[in-house]
Amino acid sequence: DTQRTAINCVVEKRRAISTELRKALSGSSIDENKVLTLAREYGALDGEISYYYATAFSQVNNTLTADQKAQLVAIKDLDKYSCPDGSAYLYSEKISMPNVGSTDFLFGK
């Protein structure tokens, strides 16, 4: 409930940004300032939601025993959960590791 208003506003901002950007599909011009304003508002809302998460996790952390905290530290080591057999996942379905060519072109000028 704490996040509900911010999440609903995020949905509204995404919809408004998408609506504005879709104008390009019909050859209309996009109001760049409107998109940037909406994106800033979206960013502020995203930060607010992150604050709520951090606050909630902090409150939970304050209730944990030393043993529970140690267990969490032990399970957060994600390296031991890697896929040594070379598999990858598409959504939650295990697949063979795809052959990805050079992606350098994505980062050039």
SSE order and pairing:
Layout: H1 4-22, H2 32-61, H3 66-75, E1 87-90, E2 93-96
Antiparallel strand pairs: 1-2
Helix pairs in contact: 1-2
What features would you highlight for this structure?
single chain, two-stranded antiparallel ribbon, 3 helices, flat
What is the 3D form? Answer: flat
Task: Please describe the biggest sheet, giving its number of strands, its sense, and whether it closes into a barrel.
Answer: 2 strands, antiparallel
Uncertain segments are none
* Number of separate strands: 2
| Total count of helical runs of at least 4 residues | 3
Q: Overall mean pLDDT score?
A: 88
Order of helices and strands: HHHEE
Arrangement of strands in the largest sheet:
1-2
**Helix and strand composition category:** mainly alpha
Q: Share of helix among residues?
A: 40-55%
> Taking Cα atoms only, what radius of gyration do you get, to the nearest Å?
21 Å
Give the assembly state of these chains. single chain
The share of residues in extended strands comes to: 5-15%
Distance between the termini: 44 Å
Structure description:
- This protein is mainly alpha-helical.
- Helix content is 54%, strand content 7%.
- The protein has three helices and two strands; from the N terminus they run αααββ.
- A two-stranded antiparallel sheet has the order 1-2.
- A hairpin with a 2-residue loop joins β1 and β2.
- α1 packs antiparallel against α2.
- The longest helix has 30 residues.
- The chain is flat.
